[in-house]
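Fold this sequence, please.
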Amino acid sequence: MAVPSHDHAYPQLPAKPDLIQLRKQAKDLRQHYLAGDAKTIAKVRQHFNPKETGELTLSEAQLVVARSYGFDSWPKLKAHIDGINRQHMAQAVQSRDLAAVRNVLKKRPELADACTGQGEQRMIHLAVVNNDPAMVRLLMDHDADARVGIWPHRESTKPLGMAQERGLDEVVAVIHEVEAERQQALSCPNITVSPQQEELVRLIRAQQNDLAIKMIEDEPELMKQCDRDGKTPLHVACDVPNEAMV
């Protein structure tokens, strides 16, 4: 993972940086800039040439925050933080630290189904290898997929196949139990469709992926919501088809 070279001109990120807090920092910076705060204006001008109109968009404020920490862009800062969070998550899963994993998932629920950073290996693979039913349950409760394998993608490389092959009966039972719960939940006819969910579906169908991704990053829970036809955003992207979004 590439890390920017910092000198004394740049403040150091916390050991466990929080992207949500950095987004809030960018929003606060923008508000103070628009309010005419002299120190904020000076900080912005140090890292970015603002428009003469006095306007500053949120993406421009995020750029200023990223550059203030020594990164060329917000995506590069985000990629750096994602790597740190993924590494911390993998270490917590491997050490069977349920409390630490829960703490990460409160802020970054999508990491439950993320790769560990070691090729295609996912967090749930680590939990299965550890024969840790409680961790498998926690990850699957946050949408980890027990049927995604590692190249060459044989059954034995999938978390479920690995558990079956190793005779880990408790882990196998947990996987089947959670999958049954998911199937029952998806069959529920009482679907509440929020305006945000409808907008996300519209963006995915229109292949406006940058805006759709921004919505998902801001509200990860949208990934779990269904539309009026009972389809998640992933189902919608597959239907379009919108390969990049899938």
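Confidence is low (pLDDT under 50) at residues 1-8. The radius of gyration is 21 Å.
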